[in-house]
Amino acid sequence: MPDRRALLGGSLFALTAASLFATLGPLSRFAAEAGLESTAFVAWRAGIGALTLTALLVVTGGLAGAGTSLRSLDGRGRAALAVVAAMAFAINVCVFLA
């Protein structure tokens, strides 16, 4: 059974993620009306998300094992991670083009 602090933190994280996800429709519409292309919007969104996640991990101390985990991947694991990243980018572009 998780402790209350972990449960509260996870709940707040899920609530924040859901709230930000709900703003994607209006935000992408505003970006398109301003002339921002879909791929540029996806790149900006991914970059801001990566910076935010990195800051969160640094503040909470969650980065301690992340570098070790990535370094321990063999070539096949790194290739799989690259494919997943490329597919995530592609699906984001497709969602905003649709």
Task: Write a structural description.
With 98 residues, this protein is an all-alpha fold. The chain is built from five helices and no strands. It has helices spanning 4-22, 24-33, 38-60, 66-71, 75-97. Helix 3 crosses helix 5. The termini are far apart.
State the oligomer. Answer: single chain
Low-confidence stretches: none
The end-to-end span amounts to: 42 Å
Report on the biggest sheet: none
Structure summarized in a few sentences:
This protein has five helices and no strands. By secondary structure, the protein is mainly alpha-helical.
What is the topological layout?
Blueprint: H1 4-22, H2 24-33, H3 38-60, H4 66-71, H5 75-97
Comma- or semicolon-separated keywords:
98 residues; mainly alpha; 5 helices
